[in-house]
Amino acid sequence: MIERIREYLERAFAHAPQTAKVLELKEELFANLVDKYQDQLNNGASEEEAYNVVIGGIGDISDLIASMEEPRDVDAKRRRAAITAVAVALYILSPFLFLVGEELFHLEMLGMFLFFGCIAVATAMLIYVHMTKPETNPEETMVEDFKKWRRQSARSEAAQGSLRSAFWLIVVVIYFGVSFYFGIWGYSWLIFIIGAAIDRLVSGLWHLKEDGDE
């Protein structure tokens, strides 16, 4: 019966472009269908009943294939990418602005204001990028559930990657800021060890939360 599921997908994807993304999508969808088929069997359904339920819940695969062929919201993605690039640049520039305020104008408070101001603005920009990603309200079919799962997984990975990048940029900024300000280069490297511990802790909590939501 599992082979029938495979044959159904092969027919459904027969006219789809044989790109790496589409082939990967087909394999992921097949694995998802097999899992649901096994769930039906475990719940007492016969093989034929389980097959009919799984196939009947697939929905329109053509929309799913089309979404792989034509990326949407290209301009919005480019805009978010540009904002992210500016935010990263602000993180990198923040220690230099601190030095400009302190060394050039001899105003320590100005340097600190520029330093933390850049970090605050850059962090706000990254939060804005993450929060403005579009949400959809798809139909309740298996394909739509699968599309939603793929979107959520991709967004989760992207959000985690962005936050970790921002975190380590902040760690680097703090390292240079503390080292320059206090002149403790021999000990300030411990900041990276503390940062690594925090990174692992937050990553573990992130995965625990995702497991709890599933």
Number of strands: 0
Order of secondary-structure elements:
HHHHHHHH
- The structural class is mainly alpha
Overall mean pLDDT score? 75
Beta-strand residue fraction: under 5%
Low-pLDDT runs of 5+ residues are 136-140
Give a brief outline of the structure:
The protein is mainly alpha-helical and 214 residues long. Helices cover 81% and strands 0% of the residues.
Report on the architecture of this protein.
The chain folds into 2 domains: about 1-70, no CATH class; about 70-214, no CATH class. Helix 5 runs antiparallel to helix 6. The longest helix is centred in the last third of the chain and has 41 residues, at about 140-180. It has about 210 residues and is mainly alpha-helical. Residues about 135-140 have low confidence and may be disordered. The protein is built from 8 helices and no strands. It is about 80% helix and about 0% strand. The chain starts with a helix and ends with a helix. It has helices at about 1-10, 20-40, 45-55, 60-70, 75-105, 110-130, 140-180, 190-214.
Topology (SSEs and partners):
Elements: H1 2-12, H2 20-42, H3 47-56, H4 61-69, H5 74-104, H6 108-131, H7 142-182, H8 190-213
Helix pairs in contact: 1-2, 2-3, 5-6, 5-7, 6-7, 7-8
Transmembrane segments: 81-100, 112-129, 165-183
Keywords: Membrane, Transmembrane, Transmembrane helix
